[in-house]
Amino acid sequence: MGEILIIDDDRELCALIKRSVIAEGIEADYCHNGKDGISKLKEKEYQLVILDVMMPGMDGFETLEQIRTTSSLPILMFTSKDDNASKVHGLRAGADDYLTKPFVMDELVARILSLIRRYTRFNQPEGLTQQLVFDGLKIDFDNRSVDAVNGIFELPPKEFDTLVFLAGHQGKIVTKQQIYESVWKEEYVYDDSNIMAIISRLRKKIEENPASPKYIQTVKGIGYRFNKEV
Prior knowledge:
- Helix 2 packs parallel to helix 3 (60-68) and helix 6 (157-168) crosses helix 8.
- The relative contact order is 0.10.
- Strands 2-1-3-4-5 form a five-stranded parallel β-sheet, with helices on both faces.
- The protein folds into two domains: 2-121, Rossmann fold (3-Layer(aba) Sandwich), CATH 3.40.50.2300; 131-226, Orthogonal Bundle (Arc Repressor Mutant, subunit A).
- Helices cover 40% and strands 23% of the residues.
- It is built from eight helices and twelve strands.
């Protein structure tokens, strides 16, 4: 299924994660600081990076920012800080998922498999017709349309791009700044009204009950999340 890179200064944890993912058919390399992690990423192609925040020297946030200058592969971050500030910092810097230590190994493996599947789905060879299919929702890239419980809708560009951005980060909390900078392609100006209006219009089209959304969930104080259960 591929190979992942673990960057964490906890040597025993690295070995345990490696054994756990090998049981799922995934190979793993590991190293214990950000500098070595950056070097390994230049030497080999991986499907995912697991990255610890608290490391000596170059910490996880600095390592994440360096990785994101050259790579879009999924990154799952570990932290012992169970607070919104650390999570938002990582998300804004480009992390795809977060897990707080201590964690259950089965949950980590499930998240790894989900991120690899999502990344593979969004990086198909050029020329293939691309559709994303969820429970009760189909996103058609050729027609820039959605087929949902309320009907088939051809979406305006900003609505379609916002939906694709959210679905492409399924299960991950994304901030309004991330949405704005990805969809509008300009610096975030702290005006959330456009984003909120687009989310409202999307919910009216794809949600059976917009007041209790199945797909686009609000994460109070942070942003939105495309439901990982669909």
